[in-house]
Backbone:
């Protein structure tokens, strides 16, 4: 089908009028994170098929930009396009993987971000949050990043309210997301906020992803079941780890450690940072997670073996800590229906 000049001009005008999303990339970028933004925003359209967003990619210096793979990408735009952005997305880069320093930001990156209008929405994917934090853009805001880096982000930037459990945050026009795939959740959230659930759901269907995932990233954090050491409460912890499915009391644990309940509580806090019962609850949860991942045992049986007693009690604990039900957790990590 031949497109007339008038039709082509109309399409160009529609693209120019659409909400402009600019992806600011740095050397060592993750191609998947760049592709997520283009794919999701690029396929959002109204009922007539008119694109709702125009998506551009820029770098401090236009041209070939290295990725963390064996290919590079050609970035056509320089930082000047940030001046006309409605939304700016900052993906992660290899430089974010190593130890960070407070406020460390390359001069060209800082200069580029200074071009972003005050009215623009800002978002980061994965450890791109360190760029926003270093630029002072997360101060006083709730934020997240990949669970492996949350502690470092919180330590370097105590003025940021770091939430390690969620897939993304949205605080007064500045958004952050957890790992790479959480960038999908973040982009769908922005589309949903801009144009409603119907548009976001259509984009999600076209990309074959859920429009909204249950829970946060807490369910993806790998916490090995604890091992006792040579500390003063080691005997009590060894005893508990060997009997997670049994009813255990503070008196039981104190007896194994040969100390009073009061002393056990104090020593436990000193050595683990939590109370004995809080520690025991975490060990039971971690054991239940592994049983759900590696066995087909019914939820009630898993609850009994891990010390929760009933499936109802375990479901409540999973919801409170992980934000998902045991069945949803098993479906995620075993691919069961």
Residues:
């Amino acid at each position: 089908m031949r497109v007339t000049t008038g039709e082509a001009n109309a399409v160009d005008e529609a693209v120019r009028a659409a909400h402009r999303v600019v992806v600011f990339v740095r050397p060592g970028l993750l191609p998947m994170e760049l592709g997520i933004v283009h794919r999701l925003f690029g396929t959002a359209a109204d009922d007539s098929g008119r694109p709702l967003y125009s998506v551009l990619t820029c770098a401090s210096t236009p041209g070939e930009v290295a990725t963390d793979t064996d290919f590079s990408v050609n970035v056509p735009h320089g930082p000047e396009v940030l001046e006309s952005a409605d939304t700016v997305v900052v993906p992660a880069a290899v430089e974010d993987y190593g130890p960070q320093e407070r406020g460390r930001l390359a001069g060209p990156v800082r200069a580029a971000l200074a071009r972003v209008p005050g009215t623009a929405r800002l978002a980061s994917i994965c450890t791109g949050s360190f760029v926003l934090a270093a630029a002072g853009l997360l101060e006083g805001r709730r934020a997240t990043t990949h669970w492996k880096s949350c502690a470092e982000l919180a330590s370097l930037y105590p003025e940021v309210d770091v939430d390690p459990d969620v897939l993304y945050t949205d605080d007064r026009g500045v958004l952050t997301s957890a790992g790479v795939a959480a960038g999908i959740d973040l982009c769908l959230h922005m589309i949903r906020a801009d144009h409603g659930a119907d548009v976001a759901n259509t984009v999600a269907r076209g990309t074959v992803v859920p429009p909204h995932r249950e829970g946060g990233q807490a369910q993806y954090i790998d916490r090995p079941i604890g091992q006792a050491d040579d500390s003063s409460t080691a005997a009590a912890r060894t005893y508990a780890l060997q009997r997670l499915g049994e009813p255990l009391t503070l008196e039981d644990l104190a007896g194994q450690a040969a100390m009073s309940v009061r002393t056990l509580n104090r020593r436990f806090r000193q050595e683990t940072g939590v109370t004995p019962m809080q520690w025991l609850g975490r060990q039971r949860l971690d054991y239940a997670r592994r049983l759900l991942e590696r066995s087909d045992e019914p939820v009630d049986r898993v609850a009994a073996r891990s010390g929760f007693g009933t499936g109802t009690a375990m479901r409540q604990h999973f919801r409170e800590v992980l934000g998902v039900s045991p069945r949803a957790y098993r479906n995620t990590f075993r691919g069961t229906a």
Remarks:
- Residues 195 and 323 are 27 Å apart (CA to CA).
- The longest strand covers residues 19-25.
- Residues 276-294 form the longest helix (19 residues).
